[in-house]
Amino acid sequence: MNLTIPSSQTVDLSTAIAPRDSRETVGQPFVDKARMECRDVDVSYGDTQAIYGVSLDIGSNEVMAMIGPSGCGKSTFLRCLNRMNDTIDSCRVSGSIELDGQDIYDKMVDVVPLRAQVGMVFQKPNPFPKSIYENIAYGPRIHGLASHKGDIDEIVETSLRKAGLWAEVKDRLDKPGTGLSGGQQQRLCIARTIAVSPEVILMDEPCSALDPIATARIEELIDELREHYTIAIVTHSMQQASRVSQRTAYFHLGYLIEVGATEQVFTTPQHRLTEEYITGRFG
Amino acid sequence: MSRLRTIDVVQGGLKKRYRFERLFRRLGLAAIILSLAFLSLLFISISMKGYTAFVQTFISITVHLDETKIDITNPGKAYYGSMVKEALRNALPEVQGRRDKRSLYGLISTGAEYQLRDMVMANPELIGTIQTVWVPADDDVDMLLKGHIDRHSPESERRISDKVIGWIDDLENQGVICKKFNTTFFSSGDSREPELAGIRGAAMGSLYTLLVTLAIAFPLGVGAAVYLEEFAPTNRWTDIIEVNINNLAAVPSIIFGLLGLAMFINFFGLPRSAPLVGGLVLSLMTLPTIIIAGRAALKAVPPSIREAALGIGASKVQMVMHHVLPLAMPGMLTGTIIGMAQALGETAPLLMIGMVAFIVDIPTALTDPAAVLPVQIYLWADSPERAFVEKTSAAIMVLLTFLICMNGAAVYLRRRFERRW
Question: Is a pLDDT exceeding 80 seen at residue B1?
């Protein structure tokens, strides 16, 4: 998909567009075949509220991009989806987030299997200071997905192949993962995440520390991964959002302002804030 | 115009800035040179005083192991002293008179007869033969030959009379007196006789004590650091615990000695002067150091590694055990070695639990009475004999070697465990 960002002149400034101060979500936040369903999610850190009543579906085998200015709560929201916010003591989450119909904040739900189902790739590549092989094998091993060396070898190979890294590292699997280049490290982290066969992969600005060529490779990879996984990606680059995603959600100061098909959000935004953001008037 | 002015202002202040920088660098360099100078002064003065302790004067005597004096069935009972005396009389036949003879016997260490006894008991076939053996000379002879007793000072001011010096010269001319490497110093325990005193008892005592300290303080310290840093909820109780641990690190060590005396010896009834109790007391003292260093090392592990582990579904314990702890290990080991080095040099708390006693036997178990190296140094420094001066310096050299080995081990372990991320 190669979209051109519309200038403000081409946008229809009819009365249909929501005014600047409206905080109602416009667009289509809900889909039919949702993998994750979030309803009225509020998040606060101590006394400061970071997310206000976000309701959003993430459909199966789609790439959902979350965009918005810094501090708008998109990363916070993403980290709620596999309960990574649990590690922050002061963080409180209310509302419901369901994965395949199961509320992940239910008391009965254990975060360990949840995070095996909902994997995460972080902003800065963070391979373990171990060999490339050990980086991939760690997840399957702790979850008991494979016990024989042969099975683990197979998982390592398929994960690296899926992440498009196999050809580059197959001769040096025993070398440290930290010795790879930035882009390779990030693909290693993606391979590590898919080694435990998650259903959903969360990506928190996965390309912000990479050069354009490495970024392009990761974007291609995301497009390929969509076939098997559901992906939610936070990005600061609107070009990236328009290139890789099917749906886009625009966050502003903790509110979900607009959700819709990516093409529609970028060509005919229905909210004044979205329009101003994607045309570069602020952000 | 305004741009030019900025540059002028910067240029104007530049000289002052560089002057300050130069001054600061020179001060740092001066501090390092000064401390190096003091350190080398210390090392040089100790080595100069102590190196002579590694050689010892020996006298060769020709003894007749008379079968009439030794009972073959019980050779340990025989009086070997008379055989030594006979050998001395034979070596210097011109010495006559009771007092002179007694001075003559004093040339040789009292350890000589035990050396003969051990030799015979190890090899009973020697009985009835004539043997030439090197036995340690008395410490006064040793001091004279090492030049610590001035021959030209007035006779009343030295411990050896002119006559005895004459005998020693005579023996030297016969070639039966010479200096050899002092194996006794490394193989025996403490003694009242300087020529028989050795460092091994204290070294073994230090080793056992440190083993106990390491075995207790390291696992406890690492466990406490991990719990406090990774698992403990942040509330008032953990704050209080943290403050108390920091305070504990500043408690004078003699207080720990008193605690050890009251708790381990009086209450639990553990033996006095034992490395076991010493190790327990020192581990109390070392614990805060290890905990504080351990927590600092855990804090230094980048959060991205924790997130990576949690992100693929590791439980918290798995995250800590598989990723955080291995990365924090080098720092923890450094803290532990610093604590252990402190414990090695510690004297005060050990005085309280009786490790200051005069102990001749080399400890073979954790509950045997033992001394430790710093206490041995203290005891020898306190002894009046001139020969203990060099022993003290030599013991300090052994202690420093011990320390250098430990630090070397720390550097090696840190290199091995260190990983880049």
Answer: no
pLDDT band at A282 (very low <50, low <70, confident <90, very high): low
Nearest CA in chain B to A114: B313
Total domains, chain B: 2
Q: Does residue B261 have a pLDDT over 70?
A: yes
Both B155 and B219 in one domain: the answer is no
pLDDT at B122 over 50: yes
Of B312, B323, B420, the CB nearest to A196: B312
The pLDDT tens digits for A199-230 are 999 999 999 888 888 899 899 999 989 999 99
Flag whether A29 is in a domain. Answer: yes
Contact B212, B279 (CB under 8 A): yes
Residues B210 and B156 in one domain: no
Q: Identify from B231, B306, B312, B321 which residue to disrupt to test chain A contact, counting A C-beta atoms within 10 A and taking the largest count.
A: B312
Looking at residue A262, which CATH number applies to its domain? 3.40.50.300
pLDDT score of B418:
74
Q: Do A122 and B307 touch (CB under 8 A)?
A: yes
The answer to the question of residue B104 being in a domain is yes
Residue B18 lies inside a defined structural domain of this protein: no
Does B151 share its domain with B226?
no
pLDDT digits 0-9 by tens, B292-305 = 999 999 999 999 99
Q: Are A129 and B307 within 8 A, CB to CB?
A: no
Task: Say yes or no to pLDDT of A231 above 90.
Answer: yes
Q: Please identify, among B122, B145, B180, the residue that sits at the C-terminal boundary of a domain.
A: B180
Domain assignment of residue B85, given as a range: 58-180
Confidence category of residue A10, pLDDT binned at 50, 70, 90: very low
pLDDT of residue A1: 44
Predicted pLDDT of residue A63? 94
Mark yes or no for CB contact A128/B315 under 8 Å.
Answer: no
**Are the Cβ atoms of B313 and A115 closer than 8 angstroms?**
yes
Please, which pLDDT band fits residue A163 given cuts at 50, 70 and 90?
Answer: confident
Note down the domain range covering A86.
24-126+198-278
Does B421 have pLDDT greater than 60? no
Residue A61 lies in a domain: yes
